User: What shape does this take?
Amino acid sequence: FGKIIPNGSHPVFFIYIEADPASIDINVHPTKSEIRFSDRSSIYSLIVYGVNTTIGAKMMIEKTVAERQDIEINEPVAAISHQGSETPHKMTYTLINNMPSRNYVYVGDVYAAYSYSDGLCIIDHHAAHERILYEKFKKGIGLTSSRLLFPIQVRLTIREHAVLKDYINKIPFIEIEDFGVDTFIIRSMPVEFNSADMAKILSDIASSLIDISSQSPIDEILDIIAKKIACHSSVRGKKILSQAELDRLIKDLDSMLDPNHCPHGRPTRLYFSKQELGRMFKRNT
Assistant: This one.
C-alpha cells in the first residue's frame, strides 16, 4: 500500500497464504504470535504483487473515445477528480485523449495548472518527477551513468557507513567506492542526479536500512533506496519549469506504470471536470 496511499493511512485487509508447513518456523516467538518463512523474499514479492494487482483492478482508468489530431505533443494524460470531505476521500480517474497544446500557469512554485475542453488539471511537479525517476531507477531504463570529472567524497557516521557498505554494489547507475572507516567515493552517476545532495541521499538510505530488519528481502531494500534517490533528485520547489519542460514532464509521466501517485502514495495531479467545477460554483442543478 505504501506506493498507492499516503503515509499515515492504514487500510484494513486480510491476506490468506497457503504454504508448505516445512517452510514455516513457528518457534521464533515464545507466545507463537510470529512465524518465520524460510523464503521471505518470495513471500514478500507475492504479497506485493497480489496487493498491487488487487488495488489496480479497483482503480481502473476509464478511457474516453476521442479523435486524434496531428499535434506533436498529443499524449494521453491520466487525470484525477477529487472531492474533499471530512471522511476518507475517494478519487476517480479518467484517461484524457486528444490533448491540445497546453499553456501552464504556476500556483506557487510547485503546482502547475492547465485547462482544456474537459476541465482543469493541477500537477505537482515534484511528485510527478519523483514518480518518473523512481520507476526509471527501478526498471533500470532511461538513465545513463556518466563518469564524474571530480569524484564526490561523502562522509557518514561510522554506523551509517557500516550498514551501507554491503549494498553499494547493488545500487544501479551509481558507482560508489568504499574508501574506508566512514567515507565513500562516488565516481559516476546519471546527470539527472547532478543537483542532488549525495551525502544527504546516502545518509538517508543508511538511516532507513538501520531501521529495518537485517533479514528484509532485497526487493524491499532496493525499493527504499529507489525512493530516497528519487525524492532527493527530483525537481524541488522554487524551481519554475518552462512550458517545454512541463510538456516533457507530463509526457514522461504518462508513460509510467502508475502516473497518478508519487512513490509515497501522494497524488501527482488532480483533475477537475467541467461538471465538478460547475458543482463547486453552484451552477449545476
Remarks:
- The longest strand covers residues 145-155.
- Helices lie at 40-58, 125-139, 158-164, 198-211, 218-233, 243-254, 274-280.
- Residues 59-100 have pLDDT under 50 and may be disordered.
- The radius of gyration is 22 Å.
